[in-house]
């Protein structure tokens, strides 16, 4: 049994989307010949679902404080072509993480180091720690960093740091074809070291789908599950719903963390639009809420990395057999739905008529049948873990060949 050292600033025991991928992989990788140890900040737990009321209040306070600090620092970062999100407080973990990674590598127990981000602190620490080591390094970019409008305004600084990190990597894992294309365009020397292992869903979700619900309920329940921030805007949807017959035909449910700015928008329309905001819950309740809804909502602008990143919840929506109302700037999520044949309800955030048309189709019904399970096989996390194991095996084999 080989052993991998995973470096992440999102502890895998944390609930919610950012940790879900590797929390799942840690369970499945031993079936494929790999044990996993983790280097992560101790005692840190950021939760999207599963938090206590006190934890939720603390998290909301932190988000408000960081939002205000980011706005105050915006002019300074703009001068160097960055957004404040490019250098979050998590970067302070790098020195401690570097020392810990070096200590673990010196034990000789690990065949490979895997660093996953964002946050990018894990990637930088792994690069620093392995600069003089022979242990192979695999870098996973769940979202892009340099060139990503969520953090980058065209600064060459991020591109230089990214190039330095990736130059040491024996393999680079990206999650979408669009991200791979972007990386290869900006770093042509990486060549076939870049591989795609997409995000996905837990396979047991397929057993929870309700395929008989092809006729929408009245009103039609549109659910957004997960974190909702200003770069995942809902204003265009609210405008499209603010007239009859759509106003009475739909009900909106937002389950998870809702940014205060968006909460204010919802408060303003509650008198005219049927809106419910539910506090974060555990993953089981979140899944049950999706299963009970009629439609899953994705809203993701270019500033949230829409060009190259797929909104993670789309996989759970599809696994549970839900049609997806996809409001984006026409990036990777829309492209994924198109490839799968599930793009009937895609619309553009800057095109009110396309949103109206998508709502009309949802209101008229019936819904299209759920995607057949075999069409979703490539996104089952047990099979994705198998692909990750195969990637690690190839890295080790190539490293041993070079030594020989």
Spatial order of the strands forming the largest sheet: 2-1-3-4-5-6
Q: Indicate the CATH architecture of the largest domain.
A: 3-Layer(aba) Sandwich
Look at the structure and give the mean pLDDT: 87
Taken as a percent bin, the fraction of beta residues is: 15-25%
CATH superfamily membership of the largest domain: Glycogen Phosphorylase B
What is the CATH topology assignment of the largest domain? Rossmann fold
Beta strand count: 12
Task: Work out the count of structural domains.
Answer: 2
Could you walk me through the main structural features you see in this protein, from its secondary elements to its overall organization?
Helix content is 41%, strand content 15%. With 404 residues, the chain is α/β, with parallel strands linked by helices. Strands 2-1-3-4-5-6 form a 6-stranded parallel sheet, sandwiched between helices. Strands 9-8-7-10-11-12 form a 6-stranded parallel sheet, with helices on both faces. Strand 11 (324-328), helix 12 (332-340) and strand 12 form a beta-alpha-beta unit. Helix 3 crosses helix 4. The longest helix is centred in the N-terminal third of the chain and has 27 residues, at 53-79. It is elongated.
């Amino acid at each position: 049994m080989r052993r991998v050292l995973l470096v992440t600033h999102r502890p895998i025991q944390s609930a919610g989307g950012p940790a879900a991928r590797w929390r799942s992989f840690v369970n499945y990788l031993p079936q494929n010949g790999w044990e996993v140890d983790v280097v992560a900040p101790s005692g840190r737990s950021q939760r999207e679902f599963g938090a206590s009321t006190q934890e939720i209040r603390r998290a909301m306070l932190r988000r408000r404080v960081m939002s205000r600090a980011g706005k105050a620092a915006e002019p300074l970062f703009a001068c160097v072509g960055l957004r404040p999100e490019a250098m979050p407080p998590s970067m302070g973990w790098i020195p401690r993480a570097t020392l810990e990674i070096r200590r673990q590598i010196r034990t000789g127990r690990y065949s490979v180091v895997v660093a996953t981000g964002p946050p990018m602190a894990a990637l930088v620490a792994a690069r620093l720690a392995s600069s003089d080591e022979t242990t192979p390094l695999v870098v996973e970019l769940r979202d892009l960093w340099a060139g990503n409008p969520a953090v980058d305004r065209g600064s060459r600084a991020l591109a230089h740091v990214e190039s330095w990190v990736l130059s040491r990597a024996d393999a680079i894992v990206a999650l979408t074809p669009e991200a791979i294309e972007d990386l290869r365009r900006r770093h042509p020397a990486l060549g076939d070291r870049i591989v795609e292992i997409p995000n996905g869903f837990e396979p047991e979700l397929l057993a929870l789908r309700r395929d008989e619900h092809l006729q929408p309920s009245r009103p039609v329940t549109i659910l957004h599950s997960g974190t909702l921030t200003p770069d995942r805007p809902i204003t265009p949807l609210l405008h499209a719903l603010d007239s009859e017959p759509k106003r009475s035909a739909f009900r909106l449910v937002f389950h998870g963390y809702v940014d205060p700015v968006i909460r204010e928008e919802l408060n303003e329309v509650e008198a005219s639009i049927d809106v419910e905001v539910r506090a974060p819950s555990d993953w089981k309740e979140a899944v049950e809420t999706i299963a009970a809804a009629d439609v899953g909502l994705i809203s993701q602008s270019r500033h949230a990395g829409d060009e190259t990143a797929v909104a993670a919840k789309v996989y759970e929506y599809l696994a549970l057999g839900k049609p997806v109302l996809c409001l984006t700037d026409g990036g990777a999520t829309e492209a994924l739905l198109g490839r799968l044949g599930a793009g009937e309800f895609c619309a553009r955030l800057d095109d009110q008529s396309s949103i109206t048309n998508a709502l009309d189709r949802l209101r008229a019904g019936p819904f299209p049948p759920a995607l057949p399970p075999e069409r979703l096989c490539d996104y089952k996390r047990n099979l994705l873990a198998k692909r990750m194991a195969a990637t690690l095996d190839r890295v080790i084999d190539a490293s041993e060949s070079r030594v020989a």
